[in-house]
Structures are given as C-alpha cells and as structure tokens.
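S.,

Sequence below, as promised.
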Amino acid sequence: MPTAAGTVLEGKDNTYDPVAVANNMGIQLSEQQLEALADGEVTYDEYQEAAQRMKACADAAGVKFEFMGEENQVIQYQVEAGDEAFDKKFNNCYDTQFAALDDLWQGYRMNWGPEAAVLADCIRAKGEEPRLLIMEKIEQLEQLGMDPQSECIDPKLNQGPNATANP
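The prediction came back faster than expected:
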C-alpha cells in the first residue's frame, strides 16, 4: 500500500492534475500547496498543514469554521452558512490553501481505505486478483455478478459486531 497520495491521478479514461485544473479555473494555488505537490506525493502531514492554513485563512476572512474530527484520515469540518459574499470568502480559502491536496488525499484514502480493502477481499473470494483503484474494484465485482454495496460492503462493514457504520 502506498504511504502517500500521488499528485497526478491517472485513471482508465482520464488524468487528473490538480495544478492544471486550478490554472484552468483561474485559481492561484498557495506557495505551500504548490510546494507540497512538487515532490510528486501528498503526505498526511502536508494534508493536515494545508487544513490548518485553510482554517487560518477562513478565520482571517471572518468565516466561522470548525473542525469536526476525521474519518479514515479525512478531515471533517463545517462552515457557518452565509450569503454569496461569505461563501466566496470561504471558497477562496479552500481553493487557494487546501483544495488540491484535499482532492488528492481523499481519493487516496478512498482507494486504500476500509471499503477498498473489503472490496478486494470479495474479489479474492471469487478467485481473482483485485484491480488497483476502488472504482475499478467496483467495476470488477459487477463484472463478476456481485453488487458491491449490498453483497460486499454492507455485510462486512455496516452490520454485525465489527460494524463501522450504521446500517
């Protein structure tokens, strides 16, 4: 299992480069985000630091922002609702300080988190070797005639004594 998220995601039919996406949207990423992306991977520490920079930016802009915890090493937060100008202030902080790292980290955690592991186990139980990305695992299970959610994830993660979520 990788120890950090790659900075360019390549899928079967497309490539996601967060710097190119930001440039195309007219968003100037902070120097810290660009620096974190420069070495080709995003670490948990870089992700955490970016979240703190986003919070500091939001606080300075007068946006009420609160961290709510983490799930699968993905930061959960809430922002007080506001008008369009208020939302623009928060979106600017999110985009410039956190968005690129957040997108990559969440994709990484999804691909290597508990659901991906359960899907891989179900595929191995069918006698095949699982593909790399979670979406590829889902597609693989569907091709094997299984419903990934109801026949794999729900029974293994969402029910019984080892449940990690409410059914």
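The chain has eight helices and six strands.

Coffee later?
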